[in-house]
Structure formats: structure tokens, C-alpha cells
Amino acid sequence: MKKTKTKKTLQHTFMIIFTLIMIYPLVWMVSSSLKESSSVFVDAHSLIPDGWHFENYLTGWKGFAGITFSTFFINSAIISVVATVGSIISSTFIAYGFARVKFAGKSVWFICMMLTMMLPFEMVMIPQYIMFNKFGWIDTYLPLILPTFFGIPFFIFLIMQFIRTIPTELDEAAKIDGCNSFQIFYRIIVPLIVPAMMTSAIFSFYWRWDDFMGPLIYLSTPEKYPVSLALKLFSDPNSVTNWGAMFAMSTLSILPIFVIFFVFQRYIVDGISTSGLKS
């Protein structure tokens, strides 16, 4: 009993220390958002501000050149929500096709899809820009949103593996009742793979909300900037950077991610626990 208690005590101690190390940057950012801009890095070791400067949030929210951060948050929401909806719908359709539908060259196409997961963004960045530039999509949201409507390989693989845990007897029973492939998909499969779809949606929303390189490449009008790109505007090499306001807006920018995660985290747990079941 003493050995078990000692082991558990050590495990919990290690987990607490590791957790504190992991959340320290987040706590430091929140603390810095309440400090005077000039003392953010001078007093960087202290997590308790000398004075509570809540005006940093008001100053940061005013934005730049008459463009408030409400505009940037709306832009991020539009990109993230629409892209997430597109990626989940398309990925679910494609995953169902790979998992249940028989067609010529199925293995080849699946391998090609998996290979695209290994391509770094830097390799396809220039060809994509040239293609979207010829389409006239530069300085629009189309390059950031439309490609998601053709499936995301990671989500396709995740949902496909989840579908494979569903007994095929359910499909056969539905066929006996007169259902075609599409009816089996949205009446049988979709209700059973909601955890996998929600898990993919959480990841998709987070990736789109946090995306910096994509908007930096394709957007040039400040009114269209998402939050991730708007935060860069605080850093001006020709003037003094308002660090307090920048960290204040950075703190607000992560709130939607926390809300989405804590509201839908049960789907992640359900997805992990259910994926271990065998048909």
C-alpha cells in the first residue's frame, strides 16, 4: 500500500509540474496583457503586474485606421466556420466512399490521398499561388475556403477508420429495407460517426482560426484580415510597439478556441473510446 501511494504521489507531482510548465506561456501572456507596455519585457519574470492596466484591452480593440478588432474577429469566424463546414462535409463523403463503396483504382487513389499528407505546405505554396492568381482569387477568401470543400486527407483517414468500426450488417439490413448507398450514408452512417466528425470539426476550426501563412499570402486588404494576421499589425518597426494591447488581443483571440474545445470535448472522448470497438 505504501509503495502504491508513493507511486501515485510521484505521478501526480510529475503531472502537476508538467502541467504548470505547459500553461506557463499562456499565463505569462495573460499577465503581460495587464501590464504597461514598456514594462512587459523589463519585468518579464514576474507574473503579477505592478498595476492592472485593463485599458490595454480597450486600446487593442480599437484596432488600426478605424478598423476595430470586431471586424477581424468576424473575418476569422467567417473563414473558420465556412471552411470547417466544407471540410467536414466533403471529408465525410470521401471517407464513406473509401470505406464502403467499391470502385476501380480504389487502393491507388487512397495511396495518392495519403501521400498528399506528407507534402509540406512550402512545396505547394508557390504552385497554389500561381493557380489562384490566374483564377483572380487573390485578396479574397476563396483560396482559404474553397479547397476545403474537396476534402482534407487527415480528416478523411480519421473518419474512414471510424466508419470501418461500424458493422457492415447494418448496411446490408438497410439495403434489404430498400435504402440506396446515399440513404445508408445519411441515415445509418452519419448518426454513428458524429464523434469523429465533431473531432475533425474541432481540429479544422482551430487550424483555420490559427492560420497565419495563408492569409498573409492571399490577403492584402486590412479590412479582410483575420485575427491571426491583424495581430501582426501591432508590431511596427517604425514606431513603438504596444505590447500590452497586442497581448490583450492575443488573449481574446484564444477564447473562441477554448469555448469550442470545452463545449465539444465530450465528442473527442467518445471518438477515442468508440474507435477501439471492433465490428
From TrEMBL:
State one Pfam family annotation.
Answer: BPD_transp_1
Top-level division of the source organism's lineage:
Bacteria
Q: Which InterPro entries match?
A: MetI-like (IPR000515), MetI-like_sf (IPR035906)
Does the record bear Transmembrane helix in its keywords?
Answer: yes
Compartments reported by the entry? Cell membrane
Keywords associated with the record: Cell membrane, Membrane, Sugar transport, Transmembrane, Transmembrane helix, Transport
Q: Which GO terms describe its cellular component?
A: plasma membrane
* GO terms under biological process: transmembrane transport
Q: Where is the ABC transmembrane type-1 domain?
A: 73-264
**Where does the chain cross the membrane?**
12-31, 72-96, 108-130, 142-163, 184-207, 243-264
Topology in membrane: Multi-pass membrane protein
Q: Which family does it belong to?
A: Belongs to the binding-protein-dependent transport system permease family.
Protein name per the record = Multiple sugar transport system permease protein
- What is the protein's species of origin? Sediminibacillus albus
